[in-house]
Specification:
alpha/beta; ATP-binding
């Protein structure tokens, strides 16, 4: 289990997240939602040990996560990528096995087979030798999911994975993530489309510089919690039937 306890983290003298405690359950897809500036990206950076907490701890199976970062696979926002780099699909996915390699060692035949299988799993076999820069948004995102698959990590974190991609790719990625959680993996998705929260996520973390609510989506995705994290007006819009009835 991935567990965060009493986490405070920020930049300079400013705390972005204060006294945050939350756990992520293996076998579940957990969504992280919150307004812009709420600390979603900061939380991901803390999980990846890219910024150091002022206080608190992050444990994976009761061991500090910073000592086992190879057990976390990360799919970053597409907007953060340099799409001009001259590399094809196969070699992008192959970079997912590099953390498993010893110094000066080449990928093994088994690793190459795993890359081929991952590319097939995301439906891009015909694009195996296609240049990275020539792919559509949905194809790019599936490539990065394939790279995460070959890492064979316990935890998969995706940061806004569905922004600007086609519905077919989004549906396929969600199906793959469901397969991973069925195998006991922990999947965490930073997400912005509140209309899909109940469809996509088993659990939900609602942030605004701390945890507004966390737990099963059915329990925490409420008008009150959304109103507290975002705005009362947004809560009314999302839960209009509840407003009309009550």
């Amino acid at each position: 289990m991935l567990a965060i306890t009493n986490l405070t983290v920020g930049y300079g003298r400013t705390d972005i997240l204060r006294d945050l405690s939350v756990t992520f359950t293996p076998g579940h897809i957990t969504g992280i939602i919150g307004p812009n500036g709420a600390g979603k990206s900061t939380l991901i950076k803390a999980l990846l040990n890219l910024i150091k907490p002022r206080q608190g701890q992050i444990l994976l199976n009761d061991t500090p996560v910073k000592s086992q970062l190879n057990q976390i696979a990360y799919v970053q926002q597409r907007a953060d990528l340099d799409l001009s780099f001259p590399i094809d699909v196969e070699h992008v996915v192959l970079t997912g096995v590099y953390p498993q390699l010893k110094l000066f060692h080449e990928p093994t035949p088994a690793m190459h087979d795993a890359v081929t299988a991952a590319i097939d799993q995301v439906g891009l076999t015909d694009f195996k030798h296609r240049q990275f820069s020539a792919l559509s948004g949905g194809q790019l995102q599936r490539v990065f999911v394939a790279r995460a698959l070959v890492q064979q990590a316990q935890v998969l974190i995706l940061d806004e994975p569905f922004v600007g991609i086609d519905l077919a790719s989004e549906t396929q990625i969600m199906a793959i993530l469901r397969e991973l959680t069925a195998a006991g993996k922990t999947v965490i998705i930073v997400h912005h489309d509140l209309n899909k929260v109940t469809t996509y996520f088993d659990d939900l973390v609602i942030l605004n510089h701390g945890v507004i609510a966390a737990g099963s989506t059915e329990r925490v995705f409420t008008r009150s919690n959304i109103g507290q994290a975002f705005s009362e007006d947004l809560g009314k819009v999302l839960f209009i039937e509840e407003v009309n009835n009550g």
